[in-house]
Amino acid sequence: MRAVYERMTPLSCPVITVGGTNGKGSTAAILESLYRAAGYRTGAYFSPHLMRYNERVRINAEEATDEALCQAFAAVEEARGTTSLTYFEFGTLAAIWLFTRTGVDIAILEVGLGGRLDAVNIIDADVAVVVSVGTDHKDWLGPDRETIGREKAGIFRGGRPAVVGFDVSDSVWHEARRMGARALIAGRDFRYEARPGAWRFVSGAGTRDLPYPALRGGYQLANASCALAAAEALPGLTLTAQDLRTGLQAVRLAGRFQTLPGPGPRVVLDVAHNAEAARTLAQTLREQRVTGRTLGVVGMLKDKPVGEVFAALRGSFDDWFLASLDDPRGADAALLEGALRGIGLRPRGLYGDPVDAFATAIGCAGPDDRIVVFGSFKTVGAILAHVQGPGGGGGGRVV
Question: How distant is the alpha carbon of residue 310 from its chain centre?
Fold first, then answer.
């Protein structure tokens, strides 16, 4: 990948790289929104996408057009010659090419998998963030949090700021110290305080009282704190107090405890697909209660810790609707049923795909009930595509 990148025009703007097991997408989106509020031209790279590949590449918080992406793909194809690239490597180089071509003031890159060997790590980030460390992707990253943490800390650079989040393994800050990075450690160098109607961010730069982020869930304060710590550590691009307030209130990212508009039962979409994210989802559901029942619609990949996810959410749902995913990695609903019965629970039904499961849940739900769709980007993406209809931009529900 480096050989191909060296044949392309290098990215010359400041770069913030964001890694972690959970929260990295939200943190990247918050950073994007903060710098947009200040009037900077932003490039942001996310993965995976929910419905359209275009979601992965945003210029000024807008998805890249088909035409722009095709131009970027053609440029990478020409530059690579006979060099083989993976899907993610090709897409990462295309995003970098597009950010260079459009002259962004700052690029925010979300790590795809791990960190040390991830495609985005070809860029020496001016600031790197590891938001959290869980035990997802053990087959690729290692058997435990300490090993996985070292892999994720591979995005740090000597002499440059390294933001270490709240829920990480000790190996992350040990690795930052070994590299000679300028570690900014959550709980030591920055922290947050939740308050009614607002929250407080405290760092070496001072204390700020701020509105809650538009992304729902108390856990987003940890992500927002990492974003603010990274922004404070990045020289040259100033953010005012008003930029911070505006950016936090304007941030958007689908599938992160996202509540759909419309009448009838409340519908929540969350891409939680590992044990740590499932525990966070369970906590958020407890914090944001409804008067009626809570119904769970779930579809997962078979290489995910299905039993651990279900155990973390035990007691969160009055009924479970289990869906198969039509994907080589997708789990069959019968596999999900076995895991659910393993913790002493029984599903309401098994369904051939998430849309069937969701439609049945809608039919069973009353106006005071809540339906939570979770388990995979593919599951949430299928429901988003369903409710938005053929045009892709509607806000109403189609059932």
Answer: 20
- With b for 16 or more beta-carbon neighbours within 10 A and e for fewer, the 334-366 pattern comes to eebbebbeeeebebbbbbebbbbbbbbbbebbe
Report pLDDT digits (tens) over 203-214.
999 999 999 999
pLDDT band of 263, cuts 50, 70, 90: confident
**Residue whose token pair is 């010359």:** 12
3-state secondary structure of 367: coil
Strand-pairing partners, residue 195, are 198
Question: Would you say residue 81 has pLDDT above 90?
Answer: yes
Q: What is the mean pLDDT of residues 271-297?
A: 95
Domains of the chain: 2-250 (3.40.1190.10), 258-388 (3.90.190.20)
Where are the extended beta strands (E) located within the chain? 15-19, 42-45, 57-59, 62-63, 106-110, 127-132, 161-167, 182-185, 190-195, 198-203, 206-210, 258-259, 266-269, 294-298, 319-323, 349-351, 370-374
pLDDT at 65: 98
Q: Decide the pairing of beta strands 349-351 and 319-323.
A: parallel
* Cβ pair 13, 126 in contact under 8 A: no
* Share above pLDDT 90 across residues of the chain, in percent, rounded to a whole number: 91
Indicate the pTM of the whole model.
0.94
pLDDT above 70 for 391: no
Block residue for tokens 């405290």:
202
Q: List the beta bridge partners of residue 58.
A: 44, 63
Extract the tokens encoding 179.
Answer: 């590299």
Tracing tokens 């009614």 back to the chain, one arrives at: 196
Burial of 241 (0-12, 13-18, 19+ CB in 10 A): exposed
3-state SS, residue 62: strand
pLDDT of 141 strictly over 90: no
